[in-house]
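Quick one before lunch.
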Amino acid sequence: MTISKALTIAGSDSGGGAGIQADLKTFQELNVYGMSVITAVTAQNTKGVHGVHSMPIQSVRAQLDAIGTDLFPNALKTGMLGSSDIIEAIAERIDFYNMTQLVVDPVMVAKGGQKLLDDNAINTILEKLLPFTKIITPNIPEAEVLTGRSINSLEDQKRAAHLIQSYGAEVVVVKGGHGNSSEVVDVVYDGSQYTLLTGNRYHTMNTHGTGCTFSAAITAQLAKGESIIDAILVAKQFIEAAIRENLHIGSGHGPTNHWAFRETEDARISTIKKQIVKL
Ligand SMILES: Nc1ncnc2c1ncn2[C@@H]1O[C@H](COP(=O)(O)OP(=O)(O)O)[C@@H](O)[C@H]1O
Ligand SMILES: Cc1ncc(COP(=O)(O)OP(=O)(O)O)c(N)n1
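Model of the LCLJCK34 complex:
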């Protein structure tokens, strides 16, 4: 039996809804062996981030060396990275071990407003990590920071995807969760065409960790050898189920339900539609 292996390089969320914990749950649900490199430990629950402790660079490097010299991943993702120093160390090790199939979730701010990335580290992501990136998955506020332009419409979302793709990533997904239309549209751009993934918007507070879970699901599917667009489509179905069947735990922004996709897969109740738009 072939075992597909995926690695997440991200922060720990003690509340279990986002970060390393969301990623490993998602890998497991999609039948992929999960591994982790922890960049920071956050004290976090559904009410917010109450503390952040960054890992020493040597520890981040040692974790990557331990995986690079033995348990080589078929695909990997990054989430909360924190600082320029950590990003530089990660980019150097990813290059050294020739780890391909990299998904970058450019995590900047938590839902509660707490910063999870230093301001000066945004350029480091673009300069050091993007050259190795297969798919980058900014949400709307992150895409606004990356492009320096505000996004108020689907056309703006497409323009942002186009511009970010020109920075060097192979494929860009500008996620639509932060809009307020009745449908959520994620815009995928691969350098030659747009693919719009549209589904129902669910009105719930329980969306903590949606971006982490979505990018982890893409990574899991890539690890199994799926094409980029199919991996993104499955991830969109996975996160839709996780939001629709969310868990109602905690008193703030609660987590999504990482086992919902497994339980509802056969019911074919996904609302996600795929539309290709040629340039
Ligand atoms: N309320 C919602 N209803 C349906 N899908 C959502 C909702 N919020 C987010 N999503 C989906 O979850 C994924 C993460 O999106 P988003 O919330 O924009 O990212 P982030 O968690 O990084 O802020 C995307 O695929 C998006 O379409
Ligand atoms: C440790 C950690 N990593 C990432 C995030 C942000 O997660 P995201 O999926 O963008 O979801 P929300 O912050 O919007 O809930 C985090 N909070 N903690």
